[in-house]
Amino acid sequence: MELFALSAAEMVRGIKAKDFSASEVFASCLSRIEALEPELSALLALTAGMGREEAARIDGMIARGTDPGPLAGVPVVLKDNMCLRGVPATCASRILEGWIPPYDGKVAELLAGAGAVFAGKANMDEFAMGSSTEFSAFHPTSNPWDTGRVPGGSSGGSAAAVAAGYAPLALGSDTGGSIRQPASYCGLYGLKPTYGLVSRWGLVAFASSLDQIGPFARTVEDLALLLSVIAAPDARDGTCSPRERPDYAAPLAAASLRGKRIAVVKELDAMRSSVDPEVLRVLENTLNLCREEGAEIVEVSLPVSLEFGLPCYYILAPAEASSNLARFDGVRYGLSCREDSLLDLYLTTRGAGFGAEVKRRILTGTYVLSSGYYDAYYLTAQKVRSLMKAEFRKAFGRCDLIALPTAPTPAFKKGELVDDPVRMYLADVFTLPVNLAELPALSLNGGFTGGKKPLPVGVQFIAPQWGEPELLNAAAVLERRLGKAPIAPLGAATEGGNAP
Amino acid sequence: MTFRYIPVIGLEIHVQLSTATKIFCPCSTDYIGAEPNTNVCPVCLGLPGSLPVLNKRAVELGVRAGLALSCTIRNHTVFHRKNYFYPDLPKAYQISQYDLPLAEGGEIYIPGDDGRPRRIRITRLHLEEDAGKLVHSAADGRLEGAAFSFVDYNRGGVPLAEIVSEPDITSPREAREYVARIRQTVRYLGVSDGDMERGSLRVDANVSVKKTDETSGEVLYWGERTEIKNMNSLRAVERALEYEIIRQTGVLAEGGSLERETRHWNDGEGITTSMRSKEAANDYRYFPDPDIPPIVVTEELLESTRNALPELPWAKERRFAGEYGLPEADAAFMAESLPVALYFEECVKNGAAPLRAANWIRTEVFRVMNEKGLSMDSFPVKPSVLAELVALVEGGKLSTTVAREVFAHLAEGRSLKDALPAAGASPGGLSAEDVEKMVDRVLLANGDVVEEIRSGRDPKGKKIKFLTGLVMKEARGQADAAAVSGILERRLGEGR
User: Fold this and answer.
1) Calpha distance B377→B380 (Å, rounded)
2) How confident is the model over B24-51, as pLDDT tens digits?
3) Using 50, 70 and 90 to split pLDDT, how confident is the model at B440?
4) Chain B contact for A99 (CB, 8 A cutoff)
């Protein structure tokens, strides 16, 4: 097996045992990237030079007997909305083209400190606004399982990179489903942590009260490994919790799901007609596995979240975004269209720099915050958000985890929804209530669709606040039944896993 | 019917808080004189991905000021984003407070125009971040006629407390008194240096005039208000308002109407000019800043801040007048600033008579401070030493004239022991016995004058003054003139 196909944990073990070097791992991943990138376009920047140097440094440490850390020599891909000093961060937007962050984000610091090697910056929907990565200002990304389809979004580049074997690990950000939905479309594990678990310092903000950084991986062990590194307190993010983080490797040893109550959601019944039957089948199958592993399946009701979550989200997220994106004005960095007057500088720069979807959300957000409309929209949505939190709290009084589809459909075709924003927004109907309620949720690959080109289908588990160990526990038990997430059958070598 | 136009004035005062670092990042607040854009970091430059973290010290200082202004402090307060585009605002929103300010509903008293204390209500005190500074290329540094502009973010993110008054102020003089009172208070509290010239205390005035019926007092017409900016001294506040009230009254008296606008005070020309019309009112789209968790002001913080409040200037004034019997003007002068008040009280504690100590501080101490450009804290004459000097004068052992000379030597850094002989005074002073002997000698040597006085030929007291002068000359100024003439009068009376 080629080195790129190993899990992160296998890489670390091999590098520390001197079975192979970090430089060899990086070279293997680099050739994988070079071979597939023309087809996938998952990256916006390749940090080959930086990565090679870093891998050599790790090898030096190993040679000297120094421990480089828990991610020693593991190539990692960062979504392009995360700051890595000296490497452009565009957020897939023209307006940030050419901006090079002069500082490292918290996750970049933590990864570097843990011995990880940066392989590149991943494509995304512009400013993380979208569900297909087609709203990247530079190019769309292809789904490694079917290059005619989208990888999901907005962290589509990160997901495609891990699914294609560019790197065993990637970071995405999730504001309404942007990690879980592409994880589902690309057949991976994707985790959206509890709001406040991972520092947002250095993450270019979309909607500050919803954004969280989280990991993509092909194994639960890798997912836990990356989470342990990035889940740390940070005094530079006032919303990052100072609480002590538990050991995320411990829950992986769980023997079964005995004693666990896993809930299905009553309202899903009424929504069956708008959910792909294959998605429902995979969910059903996964719940059966849970039952076989000893879990009790119960039912909870989330009427507010499933009916009003989407409109609530599409008021609050654009409201915050309209303010967060106001700083891109052509005065200090990024695109600047020289004009004779200040107003024209703003208008021309922002007109040329932002794509249609971003403009749509800035307009929506500006509208809902305007005087005279604030109470009707923003304030009402905040009240709905409070109701949703209460509703989840109540539901978790009766269960340990809630199971829902990650997305209503498997990956859709490129171009299919680009001109239909509302249908595109519906792709997030099951994920965004989790962000509004500030909860953790994990998407795992529950199976594949039938047909000539099978597509992965994700299942989402939602836990109470700080319930990441509970999620990893369930995922670890199910991984033993479902197999690890496979590398998509592209190019030459692929790993076993549960490929159809 | 005759009309009267009455001004209605409300002030917004921005006070720069004396924290060591900016309100949302670790950059220093000491930006004066720094090269442009060197006192900055990703946060105060608003770089993508940066996040604000609230400086708790700013909240503490805000609470301190709020309590001193008799405001109610909120237990829970939040920061809002005030959204607008301008190059000095790097995030395109200012982090400020909106409907949940840190403090509200306070009051402060100022000397009113009628001489009685006037209550000015404080609407609110809230915290916010300062913006950067635009420097325009036009010769006068203003925007008009500038080909391009520079922006310096060194000041961006410096903590400000905005103190908003109710429109309770009715004259430019009262406005000046109010600003002086606020400045004095924040200085007393150590909350701000209150320096108007350096911009750490900035005043915006909202002013309008109402047209009333002279006889009935009935309000006939409320004029539209204007906001005046760029008043960089107490005097500028008074002058700008005087000008603006005359201008507005003039417009209304001629039957014209006023526009709601922002006007710029031009101190050189002594006029206000229109900056921008408020017709196209900005919609700031305030909403709670999701990056900053709500602030909880604990009972403990309130209690400890309340307990740590210094005696405030108005209380000190009252006490100085009551406890020490100082006249109102002296009491106000001694309480004007905390260092002066401390100096004065230290003098008194060391045995100086309060009235005389106050006099010395007002005259001699301030004269030397001004001449040498010293502050009270660095003043070379310790209050205990001044107290000794004052006691010598009080005890009649040193004349005021010689004492002034001694003081001049003290101000040069000499000790009292060295300063007394340097001014030609004997360290122990003259005893009452010594003075009596001198009087004897003078009376003996001037028998003719004594005779004239005794026979009533000194109706204007000129001759007794002459004799006093002779004794003083003999005493080389170390005797107290009043005491000497007292002795003379007694002795001259004896022989009659």
Assistant:
1) 9
2) 999 999 999 999 999 999 999 999 999 9
3) confident
4) yes
What is the per-residue pLDDT across A72-91, written as a single tens digit (0 to 9) for each?
999 999 999 999 999 999 99
Chain B touched by A347 (CB under 8 Å): no
User: Is A41 an active-site residue?
Assistant: no
> Which residue ranges make up each domain of chain B?
3-302, 311-422, 432-494
For β-strands B72-73 and B76-77, DSSP reports them as unpaired
First to last CA, chain A: 19
pLDDT tens profile A183-229: 999 999 999 999 999 999 999 999 999 999 999 999 999 999 999 99
Q: Give the helix ranges, DSSP H, for A5-130.
A: 8-16, 22-40, 48-64, 106-113
Burial grade of B371 (CB within 10 A; 0-12, 13-18, 19 or more): exposed
Beta bridge partners of B161: B15, B127
- Backbone φ, ψ for residue B406 (5° rounding): -60, -45
Cα–Cα distance for residue pair B139/B146, rounded to 1 Å: 8
How far does the CA of residue B55 sit from the closest CA of chain A (Å)? Answer: 11
Q: Which residues of chain A from 167 to 206 reach within 8 Å of chain B, CB to CB?
A: 200-205
Least confident of A282-296, B53-67, B214-228: B214-228
Both structure tokens of B336: 């004007």
Q: How far is B85 from chain A (nearest CA, A)?
A: 8
d(CA B73, CA B297) in angstroms, rounded, equals 8
Q: What is the CATH number of domain B432-494?
A: 1.10.10.410
A374 touches chain B (CB under 8 A): yes
**Residue B272 burial (CB < 10 Å; 0-12/13-18/19+)?**
buried
Check A319 against B287: CB less than 8 A apart: yes
Residue A412: closest CA among A183, A152, A159: A152
Crossing angle (nearest 10°) for helices B432-445 and B462-474: 120
DSSP letters spanning A407-466: SSSSPPBTTSSTT-HHHHHHTTTTTHHHHHTT--EEEEEEEE--SSS--EEEEEEE-STT
Which residue is listed with tokens 């000359």?
B473
A173 is an active site residue: no
Domains annotated for chain A, with CATH where assigned, are 3-301+391-482 (3.90.1300.10)
Q: What is the pTM of this model?
A: 0.90
| Interface contact flag, A91 B81, Cβ < 8 Å | no
| Nearest of B444, B450, B441, B445 to residue B496 by alpha carbon | B450
CA gap B445, B441 in Å, rounded: 6
For residue A477, the number of C-alpha atoms closer than 13 Å in the C-beta half-sphere is 22
User: The complex's ipTM?
Assistant: 0.95
DSSP 3-state assignment of B21?
Answer: strand
As a whole number of angstroms, the distance between CA A308 and CA A302 comes to 10
